[in-house]
Amino acid sequence: MSKESTLTQSQKDSIQIEKFIFHIITVDNEEPTYLDEVTLTNEQKVFFKNRIAEVAEGTQYKFVDKAHNILAGLCTNLASSEQNFIDKSKTICNDFKSHHSGNMTDGAFIIATFKMLNTDDSNISLIALIKMDQKKVLEYELEVTEDGRKAKMREIADSFIESKEAVQKVAIIDVSNVFAWDILAKERKKSEGIADYFKNFLNAQMKDTPSSLTKKTVSEVTKWAKLHTDLLKDIPELEERTSDYASYVKSRAIGFINANDGVTFNAENFITHIFNLEQLTDDSKEKVELLHNNMKEHLTTTGVYGQVFIPRPSAITKTIARTKKRTEEGVVIEWQGNPEDKGIKIDVVNGKKRITILTSLLEDLEK
Questions:
Q1: How far apart are CA 178 and CA 5, in angstroms?
Q2: Spatial contact of 307 and 60, defined as CB atoms under 8 Å apart
Q3: Who has the most CB within 10 Å: 28, 178, 278, 287?
């Protein structure tokens, strides 16, 4: 079964670049300038490995009609032989340039095959497509004269800077069919998704909409809280705040989404917000850190952590926001938010749940 997960930290650390080539794209030339070989130093391999790893925090896409998708087929065949890799890389680069409309900057289009570890320690094969901007570089040479040190400067043509800011677009393509997504894509100037022409080049569509990701985020942290109630109960400072941990975590998640309307989702800030407890003891701090990492792992496995999207508060309907419970006797209670904030307290007395509701008005809803 395909995995919903984004790339874990251990997977990102295990990335090994195997084949690597780039071709030069310039505005004035109709076709790219093709290369037949590129040699990377160890430092350069680390640089590109880090750029690939960063796309784990990107947007997930699916190929449109994968069985007949030309790019999907080209990527699948890239690793079959050295000559095949070069020829297919040229075709991919030319297709990318042909889809570009409007303003375009000179640069390098990189095609790389790499492998990383799966959760069972087997290798996964993936493809990286990277567009880097070409930048003007000034080289200087120092000369010591009788009048002091002088510098001679010259401009280096045909160069691009080894800097993450020079990386314009990146796409990781899963050719092993391990993941539920086909592509992880990220664009420097986009806070969400990628440019239309880049999407058309990939012939892909978003796997999840921002609205569905918003709902999924709330749903997954609520599920997580229900699975880890015993651990949450072990933090005295949290026990003082709530008697129903799942609804508390859900309300904190919804509060974060509402407070960050229009802002790109940051999973680390999101988790920190949920566990934002003041005046923690050292023992509680350690437990909160463990819970933080545990939730991060859960959100990574379920494909939320690392996704780049702008939350949609309007996607959180009343049905999603509410907590609804029914007793053995058939009594149903429901509320939104933390139960204590609604005058509700749930505790255990002699092995049974006692529900206390403090209110100034009890309205009869029967007609």
A1: 10
A2: yes
A3: 287
What does the block give as tokens for 177? 């069919």
Instruction: Tell me the pLDDT tens digit for each residue of 1-23.
Output: 677 788 888 888 999 999 999 88
Write down the pTM of the prediction. 0.79
Name every residue whose Cβ is closer than 8 Å to that of residue 19 and which is 6 or more positions away in sequence.
Answer: 78, 79, 82, 85, 112, 113
Residues 108 and 96: beta-carbon distance below 8 Å:
no
What angle do helix axes 210-227 and 245-259 make, rounded to 10 degrees? 150
Q: Flag residues of the chain having pLDDT under 70.
A: 1, 79-81, 101-103, 135-142, 147-164
**Domain locations in the chain?**
9-134+166-207, 211-357
- 238, 240, 242, 243: CA torsion to nearest 10: 110
| DSSP state letters, 140-177 | EEEEEETTEEEEEEEEEPS---SSGGGEEEEEEEESS-
pLDDT at position 161, please? Answer: 56
Rounded distance between C-alpha atoms, residue 40 and residue 45, angstroms: 6
